[in-house]
Amino acid sequence: MSTWLEHLAEPAADNRQDPAQQHDGGQPATPSTASAHGGPVVAREHGVDVIACRRCGFRHVTPLPDPATIDQLYTEDFYGSLHANYIASQRANLAWWRLEFGAKYDLFEELLPAGRCSLLDVGSGPGWFLQYGSERGWRTVGVEPGRPAAQHTRQVLGQDVINDFFTPAAVARREPVDVVHLHNVLEHVPDPAALLDTARGALAPGGLVSVTVPNDFNALQEALVRLRGHARWWVSPREHLNYFDRPDLEALLRRHGFEPCAHLASFPLEMFALMGEDYLAEPALGKVIHSRRMAMEQALHAAGEGALLGKVYRALGELGLGRTLTVLARRGNGR
Ligand SMILES: [Zn+2]
Questions:
Q1: CA of 36 to the centre of ligand 1 (A)
Q2: How far is the CA of 71 from the centre of ligand 1 (A)?
Q3: Centroid of ligand 1 to alpha carbon of 242 (angstroms)
Q4: How far is the CA of 55 from the centre of ligand 1 (A)?
Q5: Adjacency order of strands within the sheet including 118-122
Q6: On the CB side of 119, how many CA atoms lie within 13 Å of its CA?
Q7: How far does residue 190's CA lie from ligand 1's centre (Å)?
Q8: Ligand 1 centre and the CA of 64: distance in Å?
Q9: At residue 21, does pLDDT exceed 60?
Q10: 255 CA to middle of ligand 1, Å?
Q11: For the segment 260-305, what is each residue's pLDDT rounded down to a tens digit?
């Protein structure tokens, strides 16, 4: 398999000559570069630069990969060579995953009028989020380019799925939905703004987009970089083209016709490293800390305090903390 990472490792002569690409202390782009991707380099990994792009308003790799390599990555490689055990490992922790799903559907039901319960899950993976919603009375459909995952969704779970990329054409014949769910999608795509426009087009007026992304360059991560000298471990340019924190994600949503209205974090795993279990220095600790986090969440649910846990994670999300961040935003009536 040829990867675009190899291509990205080549110095991009054109970009290097672009004054907007250089460390320039955040000077405004000149008119000639205002429409080009450019900004200070904030990380470099595997020979790939991540810039704080002035045009896009968030951090992303440069140069961006070409469309053909992205097609190959998500139709064939993602559930093949990259994550062969993904479906099995998610199945093994399904009881815990269903608590995560429930926290989101709780929010959707709080924010939407009764009876508005149709959902489109973009990058729906093996389909368990769809299945959970169906059991809860939602009308759900997935969009998933990966063939093994789409087959699992349809044949094993009996859920509705479109085996394709999320484009206006792919959903053109579908009724508008009340929620478009984008879980760990925006960081993978070369044009997240276009994806949000597609989501907007798939939503009924007043509907919600639910965007979950890794919460990157967050304060706890940067604290660990300062304290321990770790490289910025969350920068993973082959799979993650884009890096969002709460302000950048919300600004992007607003520019594309959405008004942020609720937040939900996942456990700030960086806390474990700050408490002394530094899974960044000792990767074997990764499974240990994840198990502890799952145990804590399952214990609180077992004790009848699932709602309290939800409040804690909503508050962390408001602070911009958490290993992942979910922002729910309502589709306005304009545009
Ligand atoms: Zn850009």
A1: 7
A2: 20
A3: 9
A4: 5
A5: 161-162, 139-143, 118-122, 177-183, 203-214, 324-331, 258-265
A6: 31
A7: 9
A8: 9
A9: no
A10: 14
A11: 999 999 999 999 999 999 999 999 999 999 999 999 999 999 999 9
Task: Please state at what angle helix 285-302 crosses helix 94-111, rounded to 10 degrees.
Answer: 60
Question: What is the Å distance from ligand 1's center to 37 Cα?
Answer: 4
**Ligand 1 centroid to residue 39 C-alpha, Å:** 8
With contact defined as beta carbons under 8 Å apart, do 144 and 157 qualify? no
Ligand 1 mean position, distance from CA 142 (Å): 28
Cα-to-centroid distance, 304 and ligand 1 (Å): 45
CA-nearest of 2, 63, 67 to 241 is 63
Q: Domains in the chain, please, with CATH? A: 1-64 (no CATH), 83-331 (3.40.50.150)
Among residues 246, 245, 250, 266, which one has the least CA distance to residue 312? 266
**pLDDT per residue as tens digits for the range 114-152:** 999 999 999 999 999 999 999 999 999 999 998 989 999
pTM: 0.86
Here the tokens at position 177 are 């939905």
DSSP states of 135-178: HTT-EEEEE---HHHHHIIIIIS---EE-S---TTTTTTSPPEE
Structure token digits, residue 123: 């990058």
pLDDT (tens digit per residue) in 55-114: 999 999 998 887 777 777 666 666 665 566 888 888 999 999 999 999 999 999 999 999
- C-alpha 56 – ligand 1 centre gap (Å): 4
